[in-house]
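Supplementary notes (optional reading)

For those who missed the lab, this is the record we used. Protein: Membrane protein. Length: 183 residues.
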Amino acid sequence: MAGALLLACGALAAASASQAAYNIWTNEYTFPKKDLQTALATQFPRKLRYMDMFDVNLSNPRLALNPDSNRLTTVVDAQIDNKLLMNKPVNGTLSLSSALKYDAATRSVRLDAPTVEKVDIAGVPAQYAPQLNAIGNAAAEQVLKDYPLYTFKPEQLEMNGKRFEPGAITVLSDGVKVEIKPL
């Protein structure tokens, strides 16, 4: 059965755009960083409005993996504009950190609990840091919260009538691994 499961999973992985790989010895799927980056990139560029006053443009996402905190960090270029308060838009970066969770209803690994780690906007006085953090947190909620990075096919979680489900999700230095356990 283990060999059949490996072959079925290998065929599914080869047939899909994702390079998710199943390791029969550890009962884990591993998703490489480049696939996670590709999945995340579909959310950008993104235009948001904050408090009906600020236009926020987010683009160019860059993914970093943080095994120590078991979180993903997304650094995006940000442009913030307010025609009433500012002469011209300000540019900088937002660093947004997210945990990962499994959603059984959709069979997907999703971003969870996104927060702003750092806001770096050139030329903006430090006194505006709370407002910039609020804008960053709103952006994190709107763009990253519950965003699916990978959706398992039903066949990937069933073999010979036996059903499996993802368990622990662990961020590695070069990808993310998801434990697969029998129901």
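If you only remember one thing from this example: The chain has one domain: 2-182.
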